[in-house]
Write a structure and sequence with these properties.
heterodimer, A: about 140 residues, mainly beta, five-stranded antiparallel beta sheet, three-stranded antiparallel beta sheet, 8 strands, globular, B: about 350 residues, alpha/beta, Peroxisomal Thiolase, Chain A, domain 1, 2 domains, three-stranded mixed beta sheet, 14 strands, about 35% helix, binds zinc ion
């Protein structure tokens, strides 16, 4: 969710808090965590009580791929690893891991860092948010 | 009521390039340049790092170290000469990224390399007048030097963040006083839209750096009735390794007083962050009761001098975030080709 369809100013702006600080949600009824945030708990439905939760950003690499040909704005950085990270609270998210492509491994522990995610060309908005690096 | 530093944090990108590697590319005398500047290597930002990301990481380190509630921060002033936008404040990004938004005031400062210390002074005034509870002042830069220019050997990247509060909080260092000295001196400038700054060559030394630092430093010591021997440590703006040593000696500070804060040798010139990272490195090792003298310099030109005394609170929070020496030790060397790519110097 962080890198695929994120561009476009209004859409980016609506998701700033989750991109910058990994703000998701938690259901107080069953204890399940959600990232990206959900406004309704699919398990508890009407009995669910949803509250904001700031994820620590610590987690583990579940799987990854090395990006060799990237979209505009990312091409300078290739090759780079893109991973599915399992956050310690449970949810999984896609994120770029800032390390040598030959250093990333399944099971690697990661922590969050604040980086540029991309930009709308030299005159457009700059997108900031969370990436990961090995702990 | 006493005003001072509640907590502080620094951030330095991981990459380094050796001065000798830059000299090799320009066919210059590597040993002569490194020895003359007294700089061995400098930090290089990652491809996705800029002044905003560096400011955020430094601010997060400060908040983590002091374990403060970011919603208490009533003002953020980010000093830099490399703000990522010409119009759109870096501080807005910082405020959101550290969880201080939306109930606060934010503005970006520019005053070459002293915009960060100007931010500290502004926060001091706002805290003392009770306009805000806590203020956050940041100096951060991804310094630019044109390829082949003398500045290229030292222009580095880094940031430091200081949370300013009063004695109702436990201060790690009290700021007894500050004094500034400012004139219209065209030693260094960059016009709107130009990628790299220009400088007045030899004009940057005596009439600029030395005159302003000496005047602010002497003025403050005179005002406080102190002398260099009253201080345990001193930190001066560090455009290279030569200038701060010479200015310290001229004022009467000994070499060991400036040593802990002299980070330029392995960091380079981080512009707005330069003497603030030097101060952070000094706080990393200072003990309760130690007095620290700090003077920044910004081209254009001006200097801000500060007199600080460390409290026993510093020991309690010091290890809550990476020290400057931790940050300097975590490094990877790049060659000039990689460096040029990182800095976007290859313009196609
Ligand atoms: Zn539920």
């Amino acid at each position: 969710m962080l890198y695929g369809d994120c561009m476009g100013v209004p859409r980016f702006w609506r998701h700033i808090s989750s991109r910058y600080n990994l703000i998701g949600t938690r259901c107080a009824t069953c204890g399940e965590y959600y990232f990206p945030p959900r406004t309704m708990c699919p398990k508890c439905r009407r009995d669910g009580v949803i509250e904001d939760h700031r994820f620590s950003g610590h987690g583990e690499v579940i799987t990854y791929t090395i990006i060799h040909a990237a979209a505009e704005g990312f091409d300078r950085e290739t090759p780079y690893p893109l991973a599915i990270i399992q956050l310690d609270e449970g949810p999984r998210m896609t994120g770029q891991v800032v390390c040598d492509p030959d250093k990333i491994a399944i099971g690697m522990r990661v922590k969050p860092i604040f980086r540029r995610l991309g930009e709308d060309g030299a005159a457009g908005i700059i997108y900031y948010g969370t990436k990961f690096m090995p702990m | 009521m006493t005003v001072g530093i509640v907590t502080y944090g620094a951030y330095i990108p991981r990459y380094r390039i050796k001065v000798s590697e830059i000299a090799r590319v320009w066919n210059a005398d590597a040993e002569g340049i490194a020895g003359g500047l007294r700089v061995q290597e400098k930090s290089v930002p990652d491809l996705d790092e800029d002044t905003a990301t560096i400011a955020v990481e430094a601010a997060r380190n400060a908040i983590q170290r002091g374990e403060i509630d970011p919603s208490r921060i009533g003002a953020i002033y980010t000093g830099s000469e490399s703000h990522p936008y010409a119009v759109k404040p870096t501080g807005t990004i910082v405020a959101d990224a550290i969880g201080a938004a939306p109930n606060l005031t934010v503005a970006d400062f520019e005053f070459a390399c002293k915009a960060g210390t100007a931010g500290i002074q502004t926060c001091m005034g706002m805290v003392e007048s009770d306009m805000i509870d806590l203020g956050l002042a940041i100096g951060a830069d991804v310094a630019q030097g044109a390829p082949g220019d003398a500045l290229e050997y030292t222009a580095a990247a880094g940031g430091a963040a200081y949370v300013i509060g009063d004695s109702e909080d436990s201060l790690v260092a009290e700021i007894e006083d500050t004094l500034s000295f400012t004139t219209d001196t065209p030693d260094f400038w960059r016009r709107e839209g130009m990628p790299y700054p220009e400088h007045g060559g030899r004009f940057t030394g005596d009439p600029a750096y030395f005159k302003h630092i000496l005047s602010a430093a002497r003025g403050l010591m005179e005002k406080l009735d102190t002398t260099p021997t009253d201080y345990d440590y001193a930190v001066f703006h560090q455009p290279n390794g030569k200038f701060p040593r010479r200015v310290a000696a001229t004022l009467g500070f000994a070499a060991d007083q400036i040593e802990p804060g002299l980070v330029v040798t392995t960091l380079g010139n981080t512009y707005s962050a330069s003497c603030l990272i030097g101060l952070a490195a000094t706080l990393d090792i200072a003990a309760a009761g130690d007095r620290i003298f700090v003077t920044s310099f910004g081209s254009g030109a001006g200097s801000d001098a500060f007199s600080l005394t460390v409290t026993d609170r510093l020991d309690e929070i010091r290890n809550g975030a990476p020290s400057v020496s931790d940050l300097l030790a975590e490094k990877r060397y790049v060659d000039y080709a990689t460096y040029a790519k990182h800095k976007g110097k290859i313009r196609l």
